[in-house]
Amino acid sequence: MATERAGTWLPEAGKLELGSCCGPRMLSPERLALTDYEYLAQRHVLTYMEDAVCQLLENKEDISQYGIARFFTEYFNSVCQGTHVLFREFSFIQATPHNRASFLRAFWRCFRTVGKNGDLLTMKEYHCLLQLLCPDFPLELTQKAARIVLMDDAMDCLMSFSDFLFAFQIQFYYSEFLESVAAIYQDLLSGKNPNTVIVPTSSSGQHRQRPALGEASMLEGVEASLFYQCLENLCDRHKYSCPPPALVKEVLSNVQRLTFYGFLVALSKHHGINQALGALPDKGDLMHDPAMDEELERLLAQVPGLVNSVTASSEASCLPSRTPPRVGSPWRPLHHARKVDAESDGSTEETDESET
């Protein structure tokens, strides 16, 4: 995963904020050390070019009204701002590290009022919120994130927004890496040689079933130093995103033994890992987003009579429907970044109405 931004509009995981602009940048030493093809592959440029061309062909009649050049300009502005993942299919939002970071940030910005109001939601209710942004978001991934928070508690227990969000960040962004970690953990429990661990290579690793972790293994765990040696080798050869090895070492150096879910909890609560990923603010700033508040106020002011109704409804709970809403086929936004903010705000109002 790239750790520095290089180039002009080229996206990078975790370092671009929604609403930010991508201007010309000095080329980094990392960029100069790569060939052109290596750099394009590292930044997943081909993925975005293919997606842009597909959207161009699917919407060529509408795009012809304002020109191809403007379409590409606004498409890549949307990529830089992180709004390109809204209402897209799951295969696209997980396609690149930048897409994953953008989706995490969009989910936080759209539904942070849940945390501000102090609402506690179940796993299924959080999944409904995820489906408002990605209609085919898999339930299994939401369940795995909830398990990090709930541990041995029942899956229908309530969770705070911040607890779920930081657990979801780890599970969603590092899903393939965690699949490999689960396999290593299970091998260590069974006494197998860690050097013979087979790393999953499927691009759909988050859909694989994790090895069953028995009650005894949950209590006993594995030796932290040996676990770190295996993870260090895994990070060196893993083709997907993984936490910085130095921070993983810091997590494991504080204990002698730990369980698999104990490791995931430590990752989700680690301040340095959250900063390295760069998608979410610190926990203390999670409920503050002045830029979004200012934009929403500006949009509401343009609609006569809407401010009073929104103010009155803000006292009501933001809980989603207890049954998953029926979500239509995803709309693939081309360039309407501002329109997305208004629609995402309205989506929670729709779930409120379904509950009454």
Automatic annotation (TrEMBL):
GO terms for biological process: cilium disassembly; microtubule polymerization; regulation of protein complex stability. Residues 314-356 are annotated as: Disordered. Belongs to the CSTPP1 family. Residues 343-356 have a biased composition (Acidic residues). Keywords: Cytoplasm, Cytoskeleton, Microtubule, Phosphoprotein. Interacts with PCM1. Interacts with TTLL1, TPGS1, TPGS2 and LRRC49; the interactions link CSTPP1 to the complex TPGC. Binds to alpha-tubulin. The lineage of its organism: Eukaryota, Metazoa, Chordata, Craniata, Vertebrata. GO terms for cellular component: centriolar satellite; microtubule. One of its GO terms (molecular function) is protein-macromolecule adaptor activity. This is Centriolar satellite-associated tubulin polyglutamylase complex regulator 1. Regulator of the tubulin polyglutamylase complex (TPGC) that controls cytoskeletal organization, nuclear shape, and cilium disassembly by balancing microtubule and actin assembly. Regulates the assembly and stability of the TPGC and thereby modulates polyglutamylation of the microtubule, which antagonizes MAP4 binding. It is found in: Cytoplasm, Cytoskeleton, Microtubule organizing center, Centrosome, Centriolar satellite.
